[in-house]
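Task 17 of the worksheet. Students: predict the tertiary structure of the chain below and write it out as structure tokens. Keep your answer in the requested format; marks are given for formatting as well as content.
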Amino acid sequence: MTRLDDKIAAGDIIVIDGGMGTELERRGVPMHAQTWAGAALVEYPDAVVDVHADFIRAGAEVIITNTFGASPHMLSAMGHGECAEAIIRGSVDLAKRARDQVGRDVAIAGSISTMAAGGDLTDPGNCHSDDEIADSLGRMARALADGGCDVIALEMMRDTVRSPVAMLCAKETGLPVWLGLACTREKDSGDLVAFDFPENRFADTVAAMVPLEPDLVSVMHSDVDVTDDAIDALAPHWNGPLGVYPEAGYFEMPHWHFVDVIAPDALVERARAWAGKGVTLFGGCCGLGPAHIAALDGARESLEASRRRDRREGHVPRSGSGALVC
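Model answer:
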């Protein structure tokens, strides 16, 4: 087992990084119409290294590759399909460069999403066949593993068709797989639904993904005000390691709008409550930057206290992996 595996198994507090794409945009890196921040791997690699490094300095123990928008089918849309695997492997190299630059031994998670070029997975004209997606995500998972990442992070898993394909591709690498579920509220009913897929209940995504035995499950790319209910909805189905890395603001391809971004100290207050519900892994997604990660890192002691209180109150420890509660 690696040191990260040991910490997860022990139920220790783990702090990961924040939103790479939004931090690049905040620093003036142009966003691409098809791949959003993924283009920075080719056009602004030094900026990617700088963001990774700043998250490490802020206290992140795990940094996530800038590949959320860089699957082979997305890179093909910007004319880089033939060298997609090399670009994806290179994303891990950029993370390693940042790690070496700062001099801290952090783990690297390889990000995989099911996003379509242009961002709209619901547009039939913008989608590939199931076989094409399976081929693309399989190539991506292998490239991330070959590049030397420690974990595969499935991010913004929402639907019940493509997301299970991503899970199967990730598990074929033999690496630990972290499942990131994204949800929101349906406008009229207020029910939890999959992010951008209001026809899919959040419970449906959970039912499709949790039985595939991820090693850790996170509620991510979900508004902080939705996250509490998402944790509660997930609890009856999962008693393994649990993470949270929320978003703040909203997206209009290819730009992020930094609206109503939660303050770092307010995020810590929310995190203490989440720790009391069994969450042990904390970070940020879109809109949350190094200041938020530094605040979480500085709050480890209070997060641990909330976590210990959770255990004293008789809640099942969230450790091990693949823990499906029937």
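Marker's comment: The chain has a mean pLDDT of 91. The chain has 13 helices and 13 strands.
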